[in-house]
Design a protein that fits this description.
Number of strands: 5
Oligomer: single chain
CATH topology: Alpha-Beta Plaits
InterPro entries: Dimeric_a/b-barrel, YCII
Number of domains: 1
Family: Belongs to the YciI family.
Organism: Gottschalkia acidurici (strain ATCC 7906 / DSM 604 / BCRC 14475 / CIP 104303 / KCTC 5404 / NCIMB 10678 / 9a)
CATH class: Alpha Beta
CATH architecture: 2-Layer Sandwich
Protein name: YCII-like domain-containing protein
Order of helices and strands: EEHEEHHE
Pfam family, one: YCII
Shape: globular
């Protein structure tokens, strides 16, 4: 898999934002549409996400406590690239989950 870069902007001239980095990331919500079939691909789905974490493509992941799906945050060069990565997730590929949200998100972290 390719290494994906993060967009980083440093606001050194703005005193309110001095030392803050802004990273453009992509937040997705995968909604479970077939719970029974989803259980069949769950191990493969988790392995996929763990691989993306190791590669540095995935920043965060986790299921919703009501078992309706999960939220993931990806690093990508564009929303189209993020969508292509997400579409290779076994749960999406096998139609047990669907992308119910995919948004560009600016995370600001103090450094």
């Amino acid at each position: 898999m390719q290494i994906i870069t993060i967009y980083i902007r440093i606001y050194a001239d703005d005193k309110k934002l001095k030392g803050v980095k802004a990273m453009i990331l992509y937040v997705t919500i995968l909604e479970t549409i077939d719970a029974e079939k989803d259980n069949e691909v769950l191990e493969e789905h988790i392995a996929f996400l763990n691989q993306k974490l190791e590669e540095g493509t995935l920043v965060a992941k986790g299921p919703f406590t009501d078992h309706t799906g999960g939220l993931m945050i990806y690093k990508a060069n564009s929303i189209d690239e993020a969508r292509k990565i997400i579409e290779t997730d076994p749960a999406v590929r096998d139609n047990t989950r669907k992308i119910s949200l995919l948004k560009e998100w600016k995370s600001t972290l103090e450094v």
